[in-house]
Glutamine--fructose-6-phosphate aminotransferase [isomerizing]
Amino acid sequence: EKGGYEYFMLKEIVEQPRAVADTLLGRVAVDGTLTLDEMRLAPHELREISKIVIIACGTSYHAGLIAKYAIEHWCRIPCEVEVASEFRYRDPILDRQTLVIAISQSGESMDTLMALRYAREQQSRVLAICNVNGSTIPRESDGVLYTHAGPEVGVAATKTFLTQLVACYLVGLYLAQVRGLKFGDEINTIIGQLARMPEQVDKVLQTVEPVRELARSLADAKTVLFLGRHVGYPVAMEGALKLKELAYMHAEAFAAGELKHGPIALIEDGLPVVVVVPSREGRSVLHDKIVSNIQEIRARGARTIVIAEEGDDSVRPYSDTLIEIPAVPTLLQPIVATVPLQVFACELALAKGNDVDQPRNLAKSVTVE
Ligand code: F6R
């Protein structure tokens, strides 16, 4: 069943182009029209939405954080993202015009389920993004968008995360289409780029060998820091989470702009810092700011591991290791930027002799609050 791999996780990482393609399948027409059959929310209902609230846990929460950037930009609907376990305990403001999106791979996370029940009691419409057919969360939601990653056996979410991103983008683009916003150029271009993501992920997988070598060389590190900006910030958070759960290593992500407000004091000689560099398209200001961050930390001794789009020569002089990813539109960059981080955490954990399919103390679905 492991298809010749020693661990399911290794197989599941490699399956990602297929998982992404299957999640797009049948949903994107050649002319760019999107069809989301099981959404079960009529266009007139979608036009009335005044706010979106995304609830999720762990890796699914990171997908939600990325979705916020895309949805607000494409749809101009205010979008909040909250860890499900915090959500219902603070008396959140919800109403009929609020669309709640519950993201859960398993469809059984108790925290997410309780949050969605709470939202329904407040009359909000709930859309589930889920990988397991017929699981509790989609059954209790008004509509569902299934990710078609196939069964994920490894406890750490990999291919389901990439497909959650695809599902979130589809929801955002569909809302933009239905609401007639920015329809035309930008939305159509993005839909075309999204359809090409399976090949882009495949390209990344063909070039990750140096990431494995790098990971093995860091097996004795005590801490790894991750920096990102814009959608690269949740990607950094996801990289740190993978490292904690698989390699049992302390890891922390910061928004690169926050560095000077405190975390830069942590930088010392030899400290590995992974930096996710924003794509240059459309966000060149952020790109340049992060390049200065890389210079700053390197001047203080950090060992810089830089993930940047191919051909971005501006980062080369300050990168101890440069990991190149394909150039894609900024909002879609998390799909390609996450893959090297998954490989990094997995390989580092293997170098430490850990079981990457069954990390200690963790369960694949968390059915207690
Ligand atoms: C991390 C991981 C967990 C889950 C979280 C939510 O690799 O797997 O953080 O993402 O427990 O699970 P779901 O998505 O099933 O609700």
Remarks:
- Residues 7 and 357 are 6 Å apart (CA to CA).
- The chain has a mean pLDDT of 95.
- The radius of gyration is 20 Å.
- The chain is about 45% helix and 15% strand.
